[in-house]
Amino acid sequence: MNMIDSENQRTLDGSAPGLERPRLRAVVVAVDDRLRRVAYASILESGLPIGITLELELRSDSLEPEQLERLRSVEPHFVILDMAGDPEQRTRVGGAIAAASPRSSLIGVGPDLDAPRLLEAMRAGVVEYVPEQDDAPALRDALGRVMRKNGWAEADEGLRNGKLLAFFSAKGGSGSTSVVANVGVELHRLTGKKILLVDLDLELGEIASMLGVQPRFHFVDLVRNFHRMDADLLPSYIERHESGVHVLSAPFDPEIGEEVHGEQIAQILGFLRKHYDYVLVDTSKSLATPALAALQLADPIFLVTNMDVPSLRNLKRCLPILHRVTAGDAGRLRLVVNRFNPKSLVRVEDLEETLGIEVYWTLINDYETVIQSISTGQPLVLEGGSRYAEELKGLARSIVDGPADAVTTKSSLMGRLVSAIRPGRAAKRTPAHTTPIEAVTHG
After folding, report:
1. Measured by CB atoms within 10 angstroms of the end CB, which terminus of the chain is less buried, N or C?
2. Fold held by 24-149
3. For the whole model, what pTM was predicted?
């Protein structure tokens, strides 16, 4: 017969009669029923071998000695702590729990904490923090990470071999950041998979601002702490947008981006793609070290350009380096024409002839709609109603399902003028090079 906990009248092993007893024990310390419901939902829906063996009500600013003794007697593998309310008081409760049951893994669930308070909670013993109190999947993921870290599940369980998509523009103001943000949000909506947006414009990156996210940490923080990084610590450096996509911000201070080198970026991107299904990287607008490191690792490289002569000239100048980072595999280069105007003097086939690359996708010119989206921090693909948003959705679908047919148009006088910037027609493939690639900048 199952034992019954007198405080909450639930079976101590968390299971129904006749079912196999879970092999991992959890205790919930909560202010009210909300966290209890989320905890039960996260465990039941995931099928994790965890049973909630005890619930303790946090009636005041601390647990009573009797409650701590009951917790200690259970010897739980997990303690799920309600951090709602005063974060300093809840941190002290966490410290008392860690002292009473030092072998337990303490998971905090509560409001979003700033960096100093989050670090204090971690010092008190919190090994995972879930900043969404009603988010059962987030709590489930936290439980799974703790299980893997402690050897209670296979170490590679849940690891991914995600796709790395790099977005590069040869000229500022092309709208590539807006394209990255919207495509990432739409990929998550289409697939329900884990999506991470990485801002590798380490000097003036704007993805977080564009999405209305206020990051606590950034890419350089991750670099500085990478020596101790694992699946448990990673979420502390990642922000979650309301759409469900995750964001790794560029640093707030442009100067500190200079301390990052290519090998570090390659290691971090390799680490991140093991934990996400899609990693979308917004590179800098120059072929400096951060951009080159991402481009060399990317599955496809999306070249975002406008149809003006300076944009095409700069992209043309970058092509030899791009062919080298792709080892001559032109199939990895996907040309996306942003602010496309079908009445422009520069036609699609002119771009293809000039660059030696077929146009992969076009996005209509809708400047006012895009500016409003940027100003409000609301991705266009969530709003809908505009042709530009529909074309962004189509681009995301093409990443999942495959490309659409290329667009063809007639030649033009302006196209021939643009073509004059090249000494000869660009080859669609160039021989692979094994010499190191030097960082270059462009005007």
Report:
1. N
2. Rossmann fold (3.40.50)
3. 0.59
